Task: structure prediction
Amino acid sequence: MIRKILVGAAALTLACSTGISPKSSSILERVLAADQELALTQIAGSGGMPESDPNDPLMYDERGRWAKGAWGNSYENQWYLKEMHVDKAWQFTRGAGVRVAMMDTGIDGSHPDLAPNIEWDHGSATVGVEHFFGPEHDTDTHGFGTAMAGIIGAVQNNGIGISGIAPEVKIVPYRITHPDDAEVLDLGGLRGLAVANHIIARGDIDVVNLSGGLWNSPLAGTFCDIGKNAADAGVIVVVTAHNGKNNQGAAVDIMGSNPNNMATGMTPANCPHVITVSAYALGKRKARVGNGDRAKQRSSHSNFGAEVDIAAPGGDGAVNDPGPEFPQGKQILYGNNNILTLLAADPSGAMPYLMPVRDGLLGHLWANGTPKKDITDDVRVTGEMIGPNDGEYVRWRGSISTPMVTGVIALMLSASPELKALEGRERFEAVKQILELSAVGVKGSNDDLGAGRVDAFRAVRLASRFQ
Result:
C-alpha cells in the first residue's frame, strides 16, 4: 500500500509491501513519527561545525574553515563531507559503539590515519578449508580496501590528514581477494563465502561494506541468500551498484562487468536485502537542483537501475592514456569531483599504488562496441597522490560512494540506541527507511539516484529521534 504523510507543507510518500508484518508496520510508524519531528527545514539554519574544530589539516584549516588547495584546488579538499552535511551530523555522534566489517582487499594497518580504528579478527572459519583472519591474513594487498575504509573511519583530531565520516567507528578488515591474484576480489570463492558467513555468526558486526560485485554471476542466488541471512540477523549490508562505463561514455569491461551500466545483473547489487548505492558527482553548470548548488547527477561510470536504493558522492574523473608524462605506463583518473581518501603502502615497498590493473582484471577498454585498448601488466589505473608525505592520501572515484553510505549508517546507529537495539530484519527495514526518507534531490525515486542523495545530517537527526 502507499501512504502519504504530511510533514509541515511537504508530502512524504512511503511505499510498503502489502504483506508487511504488523511488527514491521509498527517500526515504520515509529520512523514516520520521528520524521515529523525532523520538520525538513533548511539545513543551513540547523547548526555549524562541531564546537571544537578537529585539527585534521586536509579537512579544516587553522581558522576552522574547510581546507582547500591540497592539489591546487579552489574548492574543499573533503568536499563530500560538506556536501552530505557530515559536519552537522557530528553534533549528534561520531560513530562510537558501532562496528563495521570491510569485505575487500584488506586494510593497511600501518596507516597512521586509520590504525587506531582497526580491530582485527583473530578467529577463523571453515568453508572447504579453514580460513584464518588477522593482520597476517587481512592486510591490504591492493590499496582499494584501505581507500574505502578511510572514507568510513579515518581518525579525527589527530593532527594529520583527513577525517572519516564516522571517525570513532571500529573497522574489522577481511581480505577476500583471489588466492592466485591479490588484485581480484574473489566474492564467490571459498574465502569470500567463509568471511560472509563468519561475519553473520559473530553477532557483533553492525554494518558490512562491500564495494565490489560480479556481473551475471552463477552464484547470484547464494549471494542473495547470504544478504537475506545478514538482514535477518540485523546486519546491514551496503553494496555498490558498481561501474560500467568510463567518463566518456565508452563501456569498460570490468571483471565481466555490464557494458550498459545497468545494475540488474550485478550481484550483490541486485539482491533485495542489501542497500545498493550508486555514485553521483557535482556538475559544472549552475542549476536549480537540491539546495541551489551545482547540478548533482549520476557519475557517468556508475551503474543504475531500479535496484539502486540511494546515491552518494563517487567522483567522475577523466582518463588519460599512458604517455611520456607517465613512464611507468599509468592511466591517471582525475577530476574536480574525485574523492580524497587514504593510500595504502605497497607491500613490495617498490612504490605506493592505488589500483594496479592486470590483464585478467579489466580485460579491455571498449568504445563503440569494439575493444579500444588491451589492458596489460604495463597499464595501471591509479589516481593522484595527495598530502604532506606523498603517498598517504589519494583522490579516487567509483565504488567509493558505497563507504559514504556505510559511514552515514554507522552514525545513525551510534546516534540512536533504540535503533541499534532493534533485532533482525526490523533493524534493516528501519535503517533503510530512514535513509530513504532523509534523502534529498529526488521526488519519489529514480533509476539514477534511487530515493535520492544521502544526507548525513538529516539521516542522523531522524535516527536520533527514533523511539
